[in-house]
């Protein structure tokens, strides 16, 4: 980590975490409130993240909002709402993810890929999107945050050839479309993990065929009242 991501002993108090405001541009006076919300959510999700990791998550949020207009990253501009609906929403899947190398398809601004890379520095994460501008943002932010385990790639999934232990996405409206796109990139014994709002219907699950072991995990996202689920699929024949 660079000096800008270190915790300062003279930083402003946020309850059980201290965040040095140096380097933050957009969060400003809201930083203590945001840090407190984040720390509470991490505790509710039973995650173990260092103060440096928590600060890095907030720096990512700061840069997301700072560069939003230039890169068209998100429709959400309120820092608290963006923290909950982007960062904490992605944090909710961390404890449910199988281990191994990870590919995030249609990653957009790096969600959930960047969040996973920050929380799990031992995991190799690849962020894939056909939008060149958004991949440039991820490259920039990965360099600034010192995310050596992050590989941003500008490509369509059909043109990408590597295989991974875990393939994630929160971009696909259709579960079938996600499975069709992600299956060729899945290593033997790997898992597809789709972030969804509502749980898929029986019809959706039946349309996937009989080859998949499917687990629907209901997620409780702190401060988010909307429905959230993680759909985990593994090949029965492997």
Explained architecture:
- This protein is an alpha/beta fold and 238 residues long.
- It has helices at residues 31-44, 51-66, 68-71, 79-91, 113-119, 132-145, 175-182, 202-207, and strands at 12-13, 18-19, 102-105, 125-129, 150-154, 164-169, 186-196, 212-218, 229-235.
- It has a seven-stranded mixed sheet with strand order 5-4-3-6-7-9-8, sandwiched between helices.
- The longest helix has 16 residues, at 51-66.
- The radius of gyration is 18 Å and the shape is globular.
- The chain starts with 11 loop residues before the first strand and ends with a strand.
Strand content is 15-25%
Instruction: Please report the total strand number as a whole number.
Output: 9
Structural class determined from secondary elements: alpha/beta
Summarize the helix and strand pattern as letters: EEHHHHEHEHEEHEHEE
**Overall pLDDT:** 92
Helical amount? 25-40%
* First and last CA, distance: 39 Å
Placed side by side, the strands forming the largest sheet appear as: 5-4-3-6-7-9-8
Which regions are unreliable across 5 or more consecutive residues at pLDDT < 50?
1-15
Q: What's the tally of helices? A: 8
Rg from Cα: 18 Å
Report on the biggest sheet.
7 strands, mixed
